[in-house]
Write a structure and sequence with these properties.
Four copies of one chain form a homotetramer. By secondary structure, the first copy, chain A, is of the alpha+beta class. Chain A contains nine helices and 18 strands. In chain A, the strands form six sheets. A five-stranded antiparallel β-sheet of chain A has the order 1-2-3-7-4, with helices on one face. Chain A is globular and about 65 Å long. The first copy, chain A, starts with a strand and ends in a 5-residue tail after the last helix. At the A-B interface, β1, α3, α7, β11 and α8 of A face β1, α3, α7, β11 and α8 of B. β11 (about 245-250) of chain A pairs antiparallel with β11 of chain B, so a sheet runs across the interface.
Chain lengths: ~350, ~350, ~350, ~350
């Protein structure tokens, strides 16, 4: 019962890795917004498997169909249903370990929770589930951009110990899309690609960190005390497959400073209240302050690896697993559009919430 | 509109730092559970200000009253309302900077969002707001303990760069409560206390990391794909004042490993499926697997400091702020019971959710 | 877990008939609105027991205290907590039938659901619970009135078979408050009062119908397809103690007409789209059309009566109950402000929802 | 933003009369339940247009596809997505009155709310939207039946002034399905059919009352004080197109009785607490008491009629509308399975809620 997200811009995703398809219903999109499949497809293409040598060879076009909620190319204000069919499912590849719990996968926990599961490609726990998130995120980006010059941009900041040098305030979409790793530091990106390729050949996998900036977010978004903007961002990111950590602004590193060096001094830039530094990551007291929103997400090394692993099966027998199935040796390049989608969903929801509350002082 | 949390064990907190009091209403607590004010008071006493030399001198007994939802010492299944009065408010201390935006506080963002704010001690953005969370967390702990031997234990793991050596599987409540820092590594705790005292004298402040373990959690808690157990924990912790980062299991450190070294191999311990390592932090695919739940939260240095800071006021004038008001030079010792409360609230909510879903296979 | 209501103007009530008090927390009230206890008290006084010879003799002043969410007489945008203490509880009166299920009361169903209940005055099932609704409704009325000339007015339309003649478009608050029955048809009101007095003397009770009009509601409120304005009104009214039926517009009577005679023709009144008749009750397709909102609620005869009744106790013994306890022989006069409160809460919630969605066409 | 319903058994519908199709996503269905398209199709066939001479001639097979949430014929516990394509849409029929507000339709209110609408067959306001409700209701019926012998049965009780004689405790599905009116009183059913046929020929339309009984519902379902079982049923029914009134148990008629004659005396039937009469309609204090749940819904005469009507267009011009488009001269026969679906959805949601709360006394 946890497949919906958002309060006013509310999405509900559905679908398994090897079922009839995947999709999302978006309830709460404002009416009158220009929207066609092409808007969604652009983001889905960034997420889809088989897009580069670094990703899984599963070849899914992930072509989407908008089933409802638009008329003559504009949104109606009614639910927008989006459908993506599975095209390149290969159930046979999973048959031989259908009763084996793959280490650090969700096989055992789904069995424990539901008492019944599909062994086809991870079912609902597959990262294919994020198709619906990305489609919805594309709509959220359009809503945000309608009234505010919001730009949301994520990139691969670190793969294992290969740390990129990136200036969040300056990085551009073109820099991110310039290489298949989606790391705007071209030199480090090349080393990351090499490292990922080697991991694939070794039957191993890698993790790292994706960072994301949201520029142009107006002050005032976020609802204390539980639905703080940073709290909702943390949930959004931590709900992604393989995510194990989330930071906002100065994050863990900021805890080594003292208050005198960590605080962000205010100053005026014309009529606008600004901060000289941005250790707050654009959020203070759970509410946006108009500075760049800065978040980071840690993704663990892909759980599927080619080397043999000790584990057990559903009957409690000790077995050695040598996994097949197609997978990404490093999820980070494809996680970039997914992280952007989640940030967009949170910001869009809070923009609508803020519209409900503001303006009463007039 | 963001002051409620949880879906089945649902709490709604209210109250400002200097108003008529603080409190919480808990809707969804199962009936028949023994519950009195003493259960709540024990946890509130761990959170209350003035409990040690390391905390703010504001002296609040934080005595609670249960206004509804119990009868003859047991819960009725109806909403439990808890009230704590403010006793030691000192509004005058805030008057002189009533129109000044304190750096890295929520003064400016509340003004930007609501257009109207109280300047008394941070209002709703004050950490006093967590009184309601701790009271509700005490009830959640009792619900959890009713059917499962769940133990939730947090501690101060690092203050600035002073890192404790703590074994999460072995640490005890007595070790945590043995010193006012709430760090179970006594030697490091002493240095932390010293460091905090020095920061206070210097008019400066410190941050660090609180870790928390939840033992005895049954497998099967968590609702993919958005309400994953780790996602809800991340939101719960990131919603705390001063929190800037959250980790589950191996967190950011785990991203330096490869899949072959990071995966947790399964084995059988009698009838029970176990993992040999616990980099998953007790959660796989967003669902508990029966191992210890492991989370960490980064808290920034307290925003209130005694040294002068550059900032602006509501009229856009540049001003120098020299803050008064009573505050903690380091929030971590008092954050310990609050972190425990948030973890308890999430687990309790998911325990009730799991009860609604399971058992249909019979 | 069902003690909250509304999505953006969200209230959570708590309290039992004989506990520490009753109250409500309102989350989502816009900031900057003038609000003091006096605003709430005016409505609470209309609801309180002991206000006239027609009501229960239980004498509760129902004095309210606003504990949070306001500062210097204006709302902060943070949760508004309201507390009303119980003053005239008489537990002893209920002791002798503490284990008896009173017919058509909630004694048995609370026992069946929760396995544990308070026998003091009906506990949470008491109509005293509506104190919180009325306090919140008073705030909702103020929010509505802030931007729209909304007037919500209910009255007793029928007691048993005594039917008043009332023109919904013309009835005034003064007419309603002119007599203790709250029936604006003075002649019928007198007969109603007499009938209610006789029922009390006979140890019997009466039911009837309360009608309500909401004038000045702007077009566009209501969220198809489930949160239609009429659907939310129906839930709001049916959730009241003793309510057994709800109508919108032409209601049950309208089903005797044909489409040709039932439809409301549109016409223009200046720039405004109007309907010549109002069988729709101001709602079409679940959305307000700018005409008067018209609803009605049927209230059964009070379950508490003085004459002996056959029933059973918790042990399954057949017993004869001769109830004591103070009660209203007819709930309708006091239901009037409660019905208004519920209508206000629904309209206010949908006004905020509409603010979140509209205006994107600009 | 109002297209979802339910808290634990949560459905989200989407789709317009003339778009890419209609559907529903069900989140919260317990795992392991046998479920195939055939289960849904049986109910969809009872709702589909063109099934008899009494209904609209629009010929939609309404064949459904389950896209997710099942594996090998059993539910996974993950969201169940259901898709029904529109096959017999005829947009051209609506072109000529695309800018005209049809009286007592939702054309004007959708325009007022969203500022943009589809003029094709009513769009989202079309009764075709109920396809998703009926599909979800079929799943809810199966969940209910899994553990309790719940039977939900609705019928046409009155068309205009033609009142059937039906005993709610005894009526059978076969009796309801024995004629196209779905009225178990065969003699009155024949007169209803005749009356409906005449209305169609006259270009007019009829309304009436559908009644519904739910047998075998265990005691304890319903969540005071807002999510009372009767309150949720009222919302569920009032959210149906054309519904103008709802009753539970004795409803409006019960208000003519006095307490002494209206109350339901308790007695023991073996171990079971029963009531001798059932004016409560199986619900007391908002919680089921184990007796038959009895509800009724008033449906107005169909707004689409063939005779000319005065109205206005989007530009404010007075126009005379002579509607075309295919429609039902009386919606009641097809409303029967829809009412059953809504009752099933409410009961199923509350059954899951009750499972989360009960059993703590063990």
């Amino acid at each position: 019962m946890g497949s919906s997200f958002g309060r006013l811009f509310r999405i509900a995703t559905w679908g398994e890795s090897h079922g009839g398809g995947l999709g999302v219903t978006i309830d709460g999109c404002p009416p009158g917004l220009p929207l066609t499949e092409a808007d969604l497809q652009a983001e889905l293409d960034r997420r889809r498997p088989g897009q580069s040598v670094l990703t899984t060879p599963r070849d899914e076009p992930d072509t989407c169909e908008i089933l409802s909620g638009t008329f003559e190319g504009r949104t109606l204000g009614t639910p927008i249903a989006v459908l993506v069919r599975n095209k390149d499912a290969r159930p046979a590849a999973y048959a031989e370990f259908s009763r084996i719990y793959r280490p650090s996968h969700a096989d055992y926990t789904y069995q424990a929770k539901y008492g019944f599961r599909t062994w086809l490609g991870g079912g609902r726990a597959s990262a294919r589930e994020t198709v619906g998130r990305v489609a919805a995120g594309a709509v959220a980006k359009k809503v945000l951009a309608h009234h505010h010059p919001v730009e949301i941009l994520a990139w691969v900041d670190r793969v294992q110990d290969l740390q990129a040098e990136v200036e969040p305030t300056a990085v551009t979409p073109a820099q991110v899309e310039a290489n298949p790793v989606r790391c705007p530091d071209a030199a480090v990106a090349a080393r990351m690609a090499e490292r990922i390729e080697r991991a694939r050949k070794d039957g191993d996998s890698l993790g790292g960190v994706v960072r994301c900036v949201a520029r142009g977010v107006p002050p005032g978004l976020g609802d204390p005390v539980f639905d703080k903007l940073d709290a909702d961002l943390a949930k959004a990111l931590m709900s992604l497959p393989a995510c194990k950590g989330v930071e906002v602004g100065s994050g863990f590193a900021g805890t080594y400073l003292t208050g005198a060096t960590h605080n962000d001094p205010f100053y005026m830039e014309g009529e606008r209240v600004r901060t000289r530094t941005n250790r707050s990551g654009g959020i203070q007291g759970g509410i946006s302050n108009g500075e760049d929103i800065l978040v980071a997400a840690a993704f663990k090394p892909t759980a599927t690896i080619g080397t043999p692993q000790e584990t057990v099966d559903e009957d409690g027998n000790a077995v050695t697993l040598k996994a097949k199935g197609r997978h990404d040796p490093c999820v980070l390049p494809r996680a970039v559009p997914i992280v952007e989608a989640m940030v967009a969903l949170v910001l869009c929801d809070h923009l609508l919430r803020q519209r409900a509350q503001r303006g009463w002082e007039d």
